[in-house]
Design a protein that fits this description.
Two copies of one chain form a homodimer.
Chain A: E1 2-9, H1 26-38, E2 45-46, E3 55-64, H2 74-79, E4 86-93, E5 106-115, E6 128-130, H3 136-145, E7 148-151, E8 166-179, E9 182-191, H4 198-210, H5 216-224, E10 240-246
Parallel strand pairs in A: 3-10, 5-6
Antiparallel strand pairs in A: 1-3, 1-4, 2-3, 5-9, 5-10, 7-8, 8-9
Helix pairs in contact in A: 3-4
């Protein structure tokens, strides 16, 4: 049977999703917990990798196993063995032919920042402190320029190997609120896929534009000519959360 | 000169505000950092103690020191030495006769919970997972019963020594939102002072009432007769945050 899992994790302590030699990862913790439940090792895949320190509110994973655990009970069985900062929220039988990576239609990431002269320990775990001022109207204006199909070559970390750097962005939404003495800004980006570091570089570019450090022509150059010098800095991982993965069907 | 500080801390790693033998505390970290800045030891007091694991978004502290650091620069000076989970947000010269404890007019605490069958690592740091269902209308209804001046003897942890258990509650507000697949509920309580564990027991009692485990007569008995058997359980510390302290004047 193929099982699908909806999982959430606080990425602070992990070297990202994918198993690697030099860091403890979410995939490793999940694989070990699955082995405890099943009694044998299986390969578990996720909708996509998240980088070191990046969080997930709703990552989707799947694995195939010849076992008798009812699909809806797999979540609680795994949670017995998982550390507190990784939880299976839902489990179900995956539809025929389901693949966590290739079946994904849309993903939504959120990048969170807050604006204040000094950092705030109650915000720092899931957002990044920005000390410079920005123009929220400019942030909203530039958000719309990224919507549509573009070549995001300039927003991709160098060294990554992908067939194409063209991605379709369905929406870029900015939400703001004043909370605990400073302004919180959330940038929600929904697309059909994302390049390595793309959302973090997109957030950095949008913030630099809203701070007046980049002009509209820079953004146009970055999208039309793939000009790396026209983009802002790649923002730190703790501000980024994978919010949802849409498969066009109800999984859980 | 007397200095006033506005500080925020993530209480997860601390045994509360007050210095003690068996745990690392916020007051200890602040006292050590002050000694680094000043070159000598001073006594720093806060508006009130927070318990082990409780957070503060805006705790107010003060201390007296014969030194040349300009009041508005004390915040950055202290932040050099403080750990990341404690930050001075603002610093200023305290008004004549100011006392962080006795000058406080109102304090606001917030207790946060979220309702879902399984816990969520992205919510667990500052809120408590509740697995049973409640009636939000009943929660709003009972909130109002606590407003006004009452003897909160039944809501005070046994063994605490205070002159009077009468406190005035200015408001109890319930805020809800659906976020990341579960309902978040915040209970804001503003009063002229709070007994040991009072807000956590108040939150537990309100939730038990809204779940149908306590009746209206229980709440009346708890307030009118001080009946300890009529109150709910004391909720865990991580859901509680000291949100603000009001001195009736602008300090920062």
């Amino acid at each position: 049977m193929k099982y699908a899992l909806l999982i959430a994790y606080d990425g602070t302590a992990y070297g990202g999703w994918q198993i690697q030699h030099n860091a403890v990862t979410v995939q490793e913790k999940l694989t070990c917990s699955l082995e405890q439940v099943l009694g044998f090792k299986v390969n578990v895949t996720a909708s996509g990798r998240t980088d070191s320190g990046v969080h997930a509110a709703a990552q989707v994973c799947c694995f195939e196993a010849d076992c008798t655990v009812p699909p809806e009970r797999m979540a609680d069985a795994l949670n017995v063995y998982l550390p507190d900062d990784i939880r299976v929220l839902q489990s179900a039988e995956a539809p025929k032919g389901f693949d966590a990576v290739t079946s994904a239609k849309k993903k939504t990431y959120c990048y969170r920042v807050y604006f204040s002269k000094r950092s705030n320990p109650l915000k720092d775990r899931y957002a990044v402190n920005i000390k410079f001022d920005i123009d929220i109207d400019k942030l909203n204006f530039i958000a719309k320029k990224f919507e549509g199909e573009h070549d995001f070559k300039a927003y991709c970390a160098s060294g990554s190997q992908v067939k194409t750097t063209v991605r379709k962005i369905y929406s870029v939404e900015v939400k703001t609120r004043d909370f605990r003495g400073s302004r919180d800004v959330e940038i929600y980006v929904t697309g059909n896929g994302f390049l390595y570091n793309m959302v973090r570089t997109l957030a950095g570019t949008m913030l630099d534009f809203a701070a007046g450090r980049l002009g509209e022509q820079d953004i146009i150059n970055s999208l039309e000519k793939g000009d790396r010098n026209s983009v802002g800095k790649t923002m730190p991982p703790q501000g980024l959360t994978l919010e949802s993965v849409d498969y066009g069907i109800k999984l859980f």
